Amino acid sequence: MDNIWVQLILTLVSGLVATIVTIVVSEKRRKKQAKYDYKLSVFKEVMAYRTDLTGGTNTGRCLAAVNQVSVAYNDCSEVMTALKEFCEATWYKVNTQQANGMIVNKLLVLMKSMAQELELDYSFANDEFFMKPITISRSSEKSRID
After folding, report:
1. Which among 52, 86, 97, 136 could bridge 62 via Cys, Cβ 3.0 to 4.6 Å?
2. pTM score
3. If we measure between CA atoms, which residue out of 66, 74, 17 comes closest to residue 44?
């Protein structure tokens, strides 16, 4: 009779331990996935609105996304270093071609470090892919029609 109780208690304890381990592991995976998803959303915003900084209309959305980089990527020293260097390049209000080129270069380094942290394969693309997004000019279409 004592053997049955011992087996019952061991079964209950092992079931309880297995449940707790499953919950802990699932929660860690959920948090890791949520962090990755946030990083990816910030990266997508920077990529989608990068023309705000490289020329074109300024919606302010790229700067809003860049301001979130320190929150999303605070666990990645390479991205944080690239962000710091980008910020330092933008602090000076010198509007020369050299200064603007340096800012664009630092943005490029930042975007590439973000992509590396996300383990995104961008080997098919060169620097121009990052800095010159696809744009379609409707003004040229109108002139051809008129």
Report:
1. 52
2. 0.72
3. 66
